[in-house]
Amino acid sequence: MTVKNHSIKINTNRNFEIIDITSKINELIDVENGIISIFSKHSTSAIVVNENESGLLNDLEFTLDNLITDKFTYQHDRIDDNAKSHLKSFLLSSSECLPIKNGRLDLGTWQSVFFIELDGPRHNRTISLTIIGE
């Protein structure tokens, strides 16, 4: 059994952006079978697994924008003026733990792993990968 650590750096271009990182993760997997922890080191971003279909990705942005809107005043905005980004990240997840099989992520047919930027554009966003396997 081995434990390996890697990281992925991402630059984003928009305030809200969904980036498929599946292939970047698969490139770093160096075990045949095991598990991988995928963790975003930022409280205004998320890691999620879902289908990479443009309509669905647009629907996610629409839904988050309608759940957490500009019609309210948020206390955190007194500090950073990015309360909406933090609140959206509460609804999503900062990490995923996934199986590795035959040297690749063992995802369902339509599943991909996404990094979601909620407070961009940003440079050098860090995603930490911990791989446990053989």
UniProtKB/TrEMBL annotation:
It comes from the Archaea. Pfam families: YjbQ. Signal peptide: none annotated. SUPFAM superfamilies: YjbQ-like (SSF111038). Belongs to the UPF0047 family. This is YjbQ family protein. It comes from Methanobrevibacter thaueri.
